[in-house]
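Q: Hi! First time doing this. I have a protein sequence and I read that you can turn it into a structure. Is that right? Here it is:
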Amino acid sequence: MFRVIDEPIPVRAPGRSLDRSLKIAIGSFIVSASVFAIKYIAYVITGSVALYSDAIESIINITTAAAVIIAVKIAANPPDAEHPYGHHKAEYLSAVVVGVMIVAAAIAIMKEAYGGFVSPKPIESAGPGLTVSIIATAFNLSWSLFLIRQGRIHKSVSLVADGKHLMADVATSVGVLVGVVLVVVTGIIELDAVIAALVALHVLWSGWGVIRESTSGLLDESAPAEDVADIKAAIARNADGAIEARGLRTRHAGKALFVEFQLVVPAEMSTGRAHEICDRIEAGIKDRFEGAMTTIHVEPEERATHDNAAVQSE
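A: Yes, that's right. Below is the predicted 3D structure, encoded as structure tokens:
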């Protein structure tokens, strides 16, 4: 009697890569809180509206770092009955939140810049304030580069987005530092607000970039061309006994790579033999892309296209 079994296929528990991603996300929260404290001290010392705006941007860093922690933890959960394909897209949602927060930071900075332009105030104790701000900026720059590098290594869109957010914060800080120096050198107090406004535009553009990249993932964007080429090569190397593979489709969801295609085999081939070939192909793809989830639909020989194409994409 035919049965349909809906038990989920066993999956491997989250590995060291996910553990490390979570630790990095927690570290990002601590770094963001520390940088905010340092920047706020710089504002208290100088009274600069630009430095105050820079501190506001760092508050948003803390919020986005918390969002990344939550997203990484959710994405690490294995598939379940309600989410049979896993929770990987939680990281894309987090990245969208990060992008929105960057945009909010730009608006907040612009608001403060307008207030500083309408009612400019002289900058006090510029030397000590600049020194403190430079320390915070150097700290942020080092951590943002680390986040982007580690995010790409571990295929964590949340960590990459957070790193880009911090890089935007670095740009903000550099612009603020330049503005404060120009105010001190020229004596034109309004420059403090003008520089802050220009940096706000840069931050706004950065936020839009993060949102655009994240929404591509939510819309099941295919794997990069070089990855697709590697997948085709893995299929071709391990498909001995089959006739062709066609209809190749790929998509990314956070760290997960989904691969789907049709495998055409000789009409006389047994189910067991076809299954062996499928297993071999899946193992070959996983050797190149750890954790890749491959779905292969076996087709009979009469479905072959007979155009000598070993692996075809849709």
